[in-house]
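To close the section, here is one more complete example, presented without commentary so you can practise reading it yourself. The ligand is threonylcarbamoyladenylate.
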Amino acid sequence: MKTVISTDRVAAVELLRKGDLVALPTETVYGLAADALNSIAVAKIFEAKERPRFDPLIVHLPNREWLRRIAELPAGDRQLILKLADKFWPGPFTMVLPKCKLVPDIVTAGLDTVAVRLSAHPLFAEIVGELDEPLAAPSANRFGRVSATTARHVLDELDGRIPLIVDAGPTEHGIESTIVAIRDSKIAILRRGPITHEQLSEFADIVSVTVTQRISAPGQLPSHYMPTTPLRLIDSAEAFPPQTNRRVGLLAWSGASPSPQAFATVRNLSDRGDLREAAANLFRYLRELDALGLDLIVAERVPSRGLGAAIMDRLERASHR
Ligand code: TXA
Ligand code: MG
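Output:
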């Protein structure tokens, strides 16, 4: 199959309507989309990504009215759910809710819950709105690999496996949406992301999620987001010793000046010490460093407040093997 990169929305809608896959930009990362109500189309996502069938997908709604057709809103949690939707939709925010019958089992991997989101990306919104059907869309990378934040990254991951990638330049946030489950008027954060713990705690108590509960969402497996080069976390590059036989790449945060013999190459997540900029650069720099055939990538820890917690979450998984 020939994979085309273009800005052709009409072609995108046509392909989706006939049950084909299209990679689309969202405000977080690129997604690999299929008509969520067409099981055969959704099965193609699992094939293209080599994703295990037990890993459920996020359903992206055309608009807020679709929420009630896809998910049940339990009476006790309804107000909280609607408040969160009002505040964070459209945006980088996903809620796991009891599912409606309309949602095929393949989308939720047989779970009785469904993850729903409303994307704020203008092109995504236009295409899903025109289609007027929800889109199942995981990140547009092969399973377990670094998410794609540009059309080119999607091509690197899925060339020959999908017909079309819609290009809208680099994505805004650079890391995937925050995922929460709502239970008994409390919020459980299943995946950290652009909407922070601090922001959510204004709406309800936040409960911590145990490791076994997390495994029910395989995106939470410890070794997700893996570059092929080994990655190690350090506090500061200044203390990293000069290397003689190894080529080491540095993913820097602190702005400290490391020994010039220590690193073959350096990518600085943000010159301004800005966590938003760091998140937006994270996957691109990991990919660039991974492509250099280095012996090791070392990444400086970022402060774990606000968005930094979501960045550290990705770095910890990327360094886990
Ligand atoms: O920003 C994003 O969320 C991107 C864009 C494309 O929307 N999508 C994304 O999808 O990151 P994906 O499939 O790469 O990650 C979704 C995560 C997976 O870890 C999956 O296990 C979890 O959401 N998930 C989906 N449905 C779930 C459910 N019913 N219960 C628990 N976790 C669920
Ligand atoms: Mg993913």
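Once you have examined the tokens, check your reading against these statements. Residues 275-290 form the longest helix (16 residues). The chain is about 30% helix and 20% strand.
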